[in-house]
Amino acid sequence: MKKILDQFAHLDVSRQRKYQLRQAAQHKCMICGKPEVMKALCEKHYKRALDYERKRMIITKFLKNTKFNRLMLMKKVNKTA
User: Each residue of 28-42: pLDDT tens digit?
Assistant: First the structure.
């Protein structure tokens, strides 16, 4: 098998990461190779990334408001005062 010689060949990263970098340089989705829509992702994978981030932010917001976290925050404030 012939090696690919390009600007990513000398990098000390995995072959999967090199594939992702090559796809991004060609303005293709890093996951499936379709034309990119935004941030090196196609429409399908960009929507999935947005949904994942939205769920993650909701969970983080919920966890910040738990009773335990509020108590821990109050303890930190009392220690510094």
Answer: 999 999 999 988 999
Decide if 42 contacts 35 (C-beta within 8 A).
Answer: yes
* Structure-token pair, residue 21: 């970098």
Q: How far apart are CA 40 and CA 73, in angstroms?
A: 39
Question: What per-residue confidence (pLDDT) applies to 36?
Answer: 92
Q: How far apart are CA 24 and CA 42, in angstroms?
A: 11
Residue linked to tokens 């890093």: 30
